[in-house]
Amino acid sequence: MPTDNEPGTATAPPFPPPVSGLTVETRRPDARAAVCSLAGDLDIETLAPAEESLAALVGQRPAVLVVDLAEVAFCDSSGLNLLLKTRLAAAGAGTELRLAAVPPMVMRVLELTGAHLVFSLHSSVRAALAA
């Protein structure tokens, strides 16, 4: 029986490490605003990086915090709950939370739950920053 080290035998490639499914990038475009861009799935399995980043930004107390959702492919109830909790925390810190570039699938979740009525919604990050 050949071993993995013998010539002519192939070894199976290692399994790739699990991917979080969510990328989070933050930036401060100016002294008064912060932007948190999310890309991927915003769900129970991927929530932690977004939760940590949003809490850190709220803790910095910018006048405006924009959550860029343009690249979010999926949002479940835990993702919606994070956005709602962030809105409350931001209000408590004196920060205005604005959602930007909400994709249709995420907008559907906001509309079905009535949450679209409590968020400041904008077509783009630029529009959210200018509002």
Please give a structural write-up.
The chain has helices at 47-59, 77-92, 104-113, 125-130, and strands at residues 22-30, 33-42, 64-75, 96-100, 120-122. The protein is an alpha/beta fold. It has a five-stranded mixed beta sheet. It is globular, with a radius of gyration of 19 Å. It starts with 21 loop residues before the first strand and ends with a helix. 28% of the residues are buried. Residues 1-13 have low confidence and may be disordered.
Task: Give the secondary structure arrangement, pairings included.
Elements (H helix, E strand, L loop, with lengths): L21 E9 L2 E10 L4 H13 L4 E12 L1 H16 L3 E5 L3 H10 L6 E3 L2 H6 L1
Parallel strand pairs: 2-3, 3-4, 4-5
Antiparallel strand pairs: 1-2
Helix pairs in contact: 1-2
* Main sheet specs: 5 strands, mixed
What is the 3D shape? globular
Q: Can you give the helix content as a percent range? A: 25-40%
Write the element-wise H/E pattern from the N-terminal end onward: EEHEHEHEH
Q: Uncertain runs with pLDDT below 50, 5 residues or more? A: 1-13
Residues in β-strands, percent: 25-35%
Mean of residue pLDDT? 89
Strand order of the largest sheet: 1-2-3-4-5
Number of helical runs? 4
DSSP E strands, number:
5
Category from helices, strands and their pairing: alpha/beta
Distance between the termini: 70 Å
